[in-house]
Write a structure and sequence with these properties.
By secondary structure, the chain is an alpha/beta fold. The chain has a single domain, classed as Spore Coat Polysaccharide Biosynthesis Protein SpsA, Chain A (Alpha-Beta Complex), CATH 3.90.550.10. It has a 7-stranded mixed sheet with strand order 3-2-1-4-7-5-8, sandwiched between helices. A two-stranded parallel sheet has the order 6-9. Helix 5 packs parallel to helix 8. The longest helix has 21 residues.
């Protein structure tokens, strides 16, 4: 099986060496039985994140660093990463260690056992946990996930995690428009609406081990409210056709 890892990065120079070591350890394990590539997406970092990543992996032709000239947002970085992958399974994960890379083999195993199209990390699952994350971040993320459970599907507990595994057909057929952190939820919602199957991977969400989060809570909250309103309208009036959206 060919596996692709997509790891967005924005101003992460402080943690490049730590993350590079974690990636090398993961690859040493996964490459025993799989063909694995890694795509780092440097999303317009103002520091030397791209240069440091390139130096760390200069001897591995299956690890590439793709850069945006300016910061375009997490959703845009994910789309760019997808465009540069060739794997049968695509795993997206955080650069900062909030979900340890050591759990990726377990997630991939869960995808095989459950025979689903998407596996998503779920710290809000009854068997998941959260360690050291600020309360205001939890209130935002948990609250948003609860509303999506009501709007879309009750038996999924976490809707906002970047840490997921997708089969290639999902990446190739499901579109999402958001460029910011809403993209994570929008992609999952649209995949479910398209009929793809999802299973949760109960895991632990850790506080960042380095660097500073770039999420803007107020801005992302407004994005979620607008998207939730849109979902309610779609539920009552139906989803507009692509042609109607274009004309409007």
């Amino acid at each position: 099986m060919k596996i692709s890892l997509v790891i967005p990065a924005f101003n992460e120079s402080e943690g490049v060496h730590q993350t590079a070591n974690a990636v090398r350890n993961l690859l040493a394990y996964l490459r025993k039985t799989n063909d694995v590539e890694v795509v780092f997406v440097n999303d317009g970092s103002k520091d030397n994140t791209a240069e440091l990543l390139t130096a760390e992996f200069k001897d591995d032709p299956k690890i590439k660093v793709v850069s945006h000239e300016v910061n375009k947002g997490l959703g845009a970085a994910i789309r760019t990463g997808f465009q540069h992958t060739t794997g049968d399974i695509i795993v997206t994960t955080d650069f900062d260690g909030t979900y340890p890379l050591t759990t990726i083999p377990q997630m991939l195993g869960r995808m095989t056992v459950d025979n689903v199209d998407i596996i998503t990390a779920s710290p809000y699952h009854p068997n998941g946990r959260v360690e050291g994350v600020p309360r205001y971040r939890l209130l935002f993320s948990f609250g948003a996930s609860l509303l999506y459970r009501l709007l879309v599907r009750w038996n999924i507990h976490t809707w906002t995690a970047l840490y997921r595994a997708y089969r290639r057909k999902v990446v190739e057929t499901v579109n999402f428009e958001s460029n910011d952190f809403l993209s994570l939820t929008e992609f999952l919602v649209r995949a479910i609406q398209s009929g793809y199957t999802v299973s949760e991977f109960p895991t632990t969400l850790h506080v960042r081990t380095f660097g500073t989060s770039s999420i803007k809570i107020a801005r992302v909250t407004m994005s979620h409210i607008k998207f939730q309103t849109r979902l309610l309208k779609e539920a009552f009036f139906g989803k507009p056709s692509p042609q109607l959206i274009k004309e409007n």
